[in-house]
Amino acid sequence: MKRDCLTLKDLTKDEILHLIDTAVEIKKKIKNGENYEPLSGTILGMIFEKSSTRTRLSFESGMKRLGGEAIFLSSRDIQLGRGESIEDSAQVISRYVDIIMIRTFEHSRIMKFAQYSSVPVINALTDLLHPCQVLSDLMTIKEHFGRLNDLKIAFIGDGNNMANSWIYAAAILGLNLTVAAPIDLSPSGIVIKESMEIAKNTNADITLTQIPYEAALNADVIYTDVWASMGQEEQTVRKHSLLKHYQINSELVKDANRDYIFMHCLPAHRGEEVSADIIDGEHSIVWDEAENRTYAQAAVILKLLGRD
Question: Does residue 130 have an active-site annotation?
Fold first, then answer.
């Protein structure tokens, strides 16, 4: 039976933890120069309605390093729902490739595509969720601390797709997460409701606040994202006004744990959501985080194809 990864809810806690371990093993094999090609003969279709440096490079290089191939399709190459319906596009494209990743806008678009695709579909970002990024984040945190439990994770800034993804991750894995966002930029109400239900069975500690210092206090992980994502340029002035007190800077992190790490899914805007001394400082692990996209996504591909 075909499986997709459109949200972390498509995976169990044990599957997520296994994916992280698999990603670490993939990284070791690649770094050691081993001849490891479990994706030999496999073709990944990459559909980009939203452009991205890291997403394209991490998926494409991951496929090639593991012996597979990738075909890039930009919004100029296909017109989902315009020149051809999403339903028809999904049925046609899935006849040519073994697995598909999509980076798009409304989450409903990828859900409809997956419904009609005959091969697994991976969410490489929608306006609602970014599961591949948070999987690589979890991998990076475990590499750094050796564990995921008994850590306070703070997400500070816009309650966007990354905040939503972190809330799902915390709920499923039973993590301690505090999200600080202005009330007008709160995470998805549906995501919060579903996650709080999940958390009842996992003992997750999820706190929502409008006070950034409350999130940063005693935090082991401090995470942020851009204030206005791609496609939200018209909201830039409004968001900057609402988020001006949510910048990650030396004053905000002074009460975090001494060995805290700073994370950002990139691209970053120094002087806006984070000061330069933080993102370029000794606590920042953003480059490890970016690199780990390759390995986490490769683990997802292997999982969905039944080769993990």
Answer: yes
* 121 & 160 share domain: no
Q: What is the pLDDT of residues 242-287, one digit of tens each?
A: 999 999 999 999 999 999 999 999 999 999 999 999 999 999 999 9
Q: Is 103 a catalytic residue?
A: yes
35, 163: one domain? no
Q: Say what the pLDDT of residue 81 is.
A: 62
297 is catalytic: no
Domain assignment of residue 217, given as a range = 133-288
* Known active-site residue 133: yes
Annotated catalytic residue: which of 133, 220, 264, 308? 133
- Considering the domain architecture, whether residues 63 and 195 belong to the same structural domain is answered as no
Whether residue 132 lies in the annotated active site? no
The three-point CA angle 131-133-136 to 5° equals 110
Verify that 71 and 184 share a domain, yes or no.
no
Sheet holding 43-48, edge to edge: 69-74, 43-48, 99-103, 121-123
Question: What CATH number has the domain bearing residue 149?
Answer: 3.40.50.1370
pLDDT tens digits for 26-35?
999 999 999 9
Count of structural domains, the chain:
2
Residue 229: pLDDT band (50, 70, 90) is confident
Single pTM value for the model: 0.96
Q: What does the block give as tokens for 160?
A: 């966007």
CB-based contacts of 274, cutoff 8 Å, min separation 6:
224, 247, 248, 249, 262, 264, 268
Which residue in the list 127, 265, 297, 308 is annotated as catalytic? 265
Q: Are residues 171 and 300 in the same domain?
A: no
pLDDT band at 181 (very low <50, low <70, confident <90, very high): very high
